[in-house]
């Protein structure tokens, strides 16, 4: 029997955490980030996202899109505490849990989920329980590999639940824009588009045909993408954090 993995992703985590301690902000457009010319949006709630506000955006642009935007500075000590509370409760159900970041984790559900008479109802009840206990909502992706589980959690937000079996890949993932392929970066996506690769299904076709231009562009990742689209790939949950391979820093200048 294959593995059953979950990817659990907190919805608009920093913004939701601030709404918990500032209930008066619920229903208002809210972003977390630095202010001023060099400020960057870390995350935004779903109200703000309707105006086009998103993570990684300069805050001056966010303010121009949403004049009523409430901007709060990040409080990482508080967010770590909230994360610990949420994932601590999740670990009670799924002990084999790997933190991927402060707001997402992989869980090995192989020994538990297949035994449930109704796995979907079980996971929805778990989402409701975690929301009630912590105030935080999450989206859950279920798949046989890490990539499928991650793609599943990205499909529906907030409070989404998506199961992607091998047989579901073409139906659920092929129609998605190529930018949504987890593992393909912001620089590669436009290059693929210039080659006519607009959707994940287009990439799958190009891989099957072994198009030289696409193979050249993706390099070693070509074979990785091929395996992922066939439902193969890493199906492990790592309890110990891997050693960091690099450290980076960036700075937004006062003027373009």
Name the features:
single chain, 256 residues, five-stranded mixed beta sheet, globular
Structure description:
A hairpin with a 2-residue loop joins strand 5 (97-101) and strand 6. This protein has helices spanning 13-21, 46-49, 59-65, 76-93, 119-134, 146-155, 169-172, 188-194, 200-208, 212-218, 221-229, and strands spanning 5-10, 30-33, 41-44, 70-72, 97-101, 104-108, 138-143, 161-164. 39% of the residues lie in helices and 14% in strands. With 256 residues, the protein is α/β, with parallel strands linked by helices. Helix 4 runs antiparallel to helix 5 (119-134).
Percent range for β-strand residues: 5-15%
Number of strands: 8
Number of helical runs? 11
N→C terminal distance: 55 Å
Main sheet strand line-up? 5-6-1-7-8
The helix/strand series, from N terminus to C terminus, equals EHEEHHEHEEHEHEHHHHH
Mean pLDDT comes to: 94
Secondary-structure content class: alpha/beta
Largest sheet: 5 strands, mixed
Radius of gyration, in angstroms, nearest whole number: 20 Å
Percent of residues in helical segments?
Answer: 25-40%
Residue runs with pLDDT of under 50 for 5 or more positions: none
Inertia-based shape: globular
